[in-house]
Structure formats: structure tokens, C-alpha cells
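#lab-general

N.A. 3:47 PM
ok so I finally got the sequence cleaned up, no stray characters, all 634 residues accounted for. can someone with queue access submit it? mine expired

B.Y. 3:52 PM
send it over

N.A. 3:53 PM
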Amino acid sequence: MLDIHTYDAQAGGNVLYKALAHPLAAEALAGLAASVRAAGPVAVYDPEGMFAMVLALCPGAADGLSGLGVIEGVYVHDTQRVGRPTAAGPARALVDLPLAAVGAVLVVSFDGARVRDRIAHLLPDGARVFALDGVRLPDTLLTVPERYLDRLNFATNHAFFRDAEGLSTRLVTANYWARYGATDVRLWLRLFGARGEVLASWEEAVPDGESAIVIDSRAVRARFGLPPFVGQLFVHAIGVAGHDVVKYALDTYGTGDNPSLSVTHDANAWPSDRYANLPAPDVGEEVVLWVQNSHAVPIPAGAMALNRMGDERQVPIMRGIGPYETVAIPVAECLPDLRWPAQIELRSGRYLVRPRYEVTRAARTRIAHLNVERADLRPDPGIADLPPSLGRGYLLPFPILDPARFRTVVQPSPMAESQGTLPLRLDCFDVEGRLTGRKFLGCLPRDHDLAQDVAELGVPEGHGELVYDFRDGGEADGWLHALIRFTARQGGHAAETSFGAHIFNTVMTYRGEPQSYSGPPPGLTTRLFLKGGNGLGEAFCCLIYPASAAWRPWSRTVLSLHDGQGQAVAKADLEIACSGSAMVWPHRLFGAAAIARAGMGGYVMIRDVTCRLFGYHGVMRADGAFSLDHMFGF
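B.Y. 4:20 PM
back already:
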């Protein structure tokens, strides 16, 4: 497992990780490591505790040696750190550095010249001094040059990107940083091929204002004269404000005779120990796990593994994977006897940023992402005894599409390493917010294989909510997730998505829930991004007004249609009943002429200052193909 710290719920993302994992930084780190190795054994001065991360992400390890070669020792000035384990034995006191028999000293700081001056009298005779200054990105790629490890300097993310075998991809988002005052936003992009090779590097200017951002694999391929490719796109946004995460929707669409259409998204830019909600293949399906190495260091054979959720017997992935390489791992080759609705857990070793999986049935594929499995959560006994003011507590809302046309299947997914049971109930509501059905799903074990077809409850179109129900005992941690699969009854086209639970629309709060405050509680708001169809079909979304307890009887929702330059084209008001939902079709709401004026990149911002809505978006084609995933906001 990579010895890196990437994210925690309190501190958020680790900026040092993103600074070292940036492809340009990785290239510079490889050059630095080569110079250090050539100088001879190295003593490391680690003033800020960054060395473990540097060593883990340092390219060039071989023959049992680190990328830096022979490490004589790690030196620290903090007496409380002396003696603690490091990659080169117990940490040593900085006062002992002059006695080190080394040819090099590595100062683990991005301000190496200043630190070197301070310890000049402690440097061993004849030792060359190196630091991380040369690993810094150039100031032209920094939003806040005066503070290198400022989180806004590393607004980065990875995207699965493909243009091959009748399948293309399209990344869509908007310049949401403009809302926080950003101007002159730019994107630095690097496209890696399947072998990890660099296919192209370029920059794109983003128009000021809340303009659309559309990056299509076909356009990229034509621009750079590329052959067919399957790889990953690294995105670095510069000049940003407010958000340090690059959020986007990713369409996968068939070209020529390929009928595929699906959408997924990403907003999580940090690796995790484990990922969950990888479905086992159903009869007639192939499920492929797309392993995309997010780093410049290789993944050793056997460093990652798959197992059935709840079964600790792991099957190693016995293939070494090179830096930035993209590899398709057929799930059935690792777990040949496993079938849907069994679930699979990926032990990723922290090598991957948001892995994808792809399901193929007949000529159609659908692609979705795995979710981060939390290592820091423990069962919370308070959830079973929430006060009446919090009503039903944590809810996981999802659409129930028209049962005459679609099957809607919900599968609860364990999403924390400590999660042993899932005590759950399914509540269903029509579009007016009336309860239409309820089913206790049981106190499910970690290795359960329940996939509930909502049609069995005989409920109409609307939405469902998974809630905790402790009638048979069990534990909860608030990190309730589920995979929801939608299948057209005619034609068999399918889409799937996954997300987690929150407490929705209550006056009272519990452990930071409800979320989406506008100022201090209890004010709750909504801001959701609905991308346009962009030539793939008619865009739509299902807006859900979930309520854990009684809230306002109706939403006061405003939908604003914007063109690709971010200019408002039209507005419409919408009221959704509390515990109800609404299907929104922009071409019907605003009219075909307005949609045409919005053009490529046109989108809808969904705003409500009275409540928090939750949504799922997609595209519907005339032939019945559709995509569907949960929405995100800025």
C-alpha cells in the first residue's frame, strides 16, 4: 500500500499529496531523485514530516532500493519525533547530522534555500544539498504563488477518457469558480494513453463568467491527430476561487452503430484504501474494472485485490501496472463464480483515484464509478435514538421511474470498513409526496445479496428513500449508500448510479446534518447543475424534495437556462411538494427555441433558497437509450 495520506473528513484533502502527484511535479521529482542517487548515500532532513509521502510517490525505485537510492537516515529537529519509525529506521536528532557519512542531504521542503541556510553549520563535509524547490510547479500554473501548498493551487482531478471502438467520452462542467470572483481561469490538461504514455499536453482558456466547459474526446483526437485511445485525462484548473475540486459530468456515448449511452461523474480527487459498490456480473453481462494508475510509480503485481463484500478472502490482481497505465480487469477472471446481486470490494492500495467499472450486455455498455469506502467511521449508537425533531433521520433518496417503462432496483451497499450490518427500510412516495409503499428490508449482513425491485411494492412513479430501521437490531454510522439500477422494459437499455444518505430539511441538526446551509442553521438551500443534451438526446432530471421531518409544504425552485457562455436565456419557477418529486425536461419547460439558443454547452442551474433538493440527471434518446446519474452542485 502506498504510504500516503490523502483525505479525511475533518481536514479535507491533503494538499501535499496533490502537489507531489501532479504529473509535472512527478517528472521533476524523478529528475531530483536521479541526482540524489548519483551523489551517493543520502541523509534526509524532514522538518515538516513530509518525507514519507515524498518517498512513496518518488519514481525510480528498483533493485530493492528507493527512488532516492540508499537512505542513511532521516533527521528531525522535534525532540518528540526522535526515535519514531521512518523509512530508514528510527528518526534521528538533527544535531547528529554532521556525523552522517553521506554524499547528499535532501531537505524535504519547498523552501529549501532558506532551510539550508539555517542548517549550514550542520551539513556533513562535502555533501551536496538538494531540496524540493525544483519540484514546484512554475508560478504560471499557480493560483496563489506566494503560498505554494495553498489548496487552490491544486484544483485537479482525473477523468476516464476514451475515443476507440465506437465509444467516445465528453467531460462537461461550468466555470463555477467565477461565482466566487475568479477571472482568467485556465485549464492545464494532459492526456495519457493506455500504456501511460503522454498523448498530449495543452492549455485551454475558460471564458469569464459561469461559462460551460466541454472537452470531447473526438475533438481532442482530431486536434492532435491521435490514433484511437483509452486512457485518462488529468485536469488542473488555474486561477480558481472558492472550490479546489474539479467537478464534472462524463458522458460515454456510442458512435457509428454503437448504441451505448451512459453518464457518470467525479468530484473525489483522492485515492482510498478500499472502494465499494462494484457489482458482480449478471447473466449475460461482462463487468470490467478499469484500473487507472493515478501516479508516476508502478503498481506491483498483487498490490491490489478483489473480494466479495463481507468475505475477507482476497483475490490479488496479479498484473503489474505501470505509471499512469490504464488496464481493463474482467471481474469474472478474478471471481469466476460470483453473480449479481453479489457485491465486490476493491482493495486498491491507494493507487487509484475513483476507479470506474463498465458493464457490457449485448452491444451496449454502461459505465459508473466505485465509491470511497470509509476507514475512519465507526457505528454511531446515537442514530438509533435520534430525537423526534429529526424525524426519520438519514434518508437516501432515489427516483422511481415510470414502472410501466422501467424497472428500478435498489441495492444497499456497505461503504465503511467497520460496517457489519445495514438495518433498513424502504419508503416510497408519489410525486405529490404521499406515502405509497413501505417495506422493511431487514437487518442486512455485510455480505448480503439483496437487490430490491421496487415494482414488487406496486408503487407508482415518484421516488424511494432508504432509511434506518432498528426493529431487528443492527448498527448505523450515517454513511448509508446504495446502487440504483434502472432498466428499460423495452430494449433493455440500463443505467446505474450510487450515492449516500443525509438528513434532509430539518430545523434541528445532528453531527453536521442537514448539509447545504446558507449561513448558519437552519437555513437550507439548493444549487444543482443540469447539463444540456449537447446533441446526445434530450436532457432531463428528477428533482426530489426529501424531508426527514416536516419542512415547508412546497419548494420555491427557480430553474435558469444558460447558454454555453454562461448568459441567462430563460427562467422558470417550479413548486415541488414536500416528500414529493418532479421530472424536469428543459426542452418542454423552456421550449425548443430557447434550448437551441443555449446551444452546445447550454445548461440549467437549479436554485432554491427554501429547502435542499436532491437530483438525478440524464439524457434520453428517441430510440429509448438513456443515461442517469446523481447530480452535483457548485
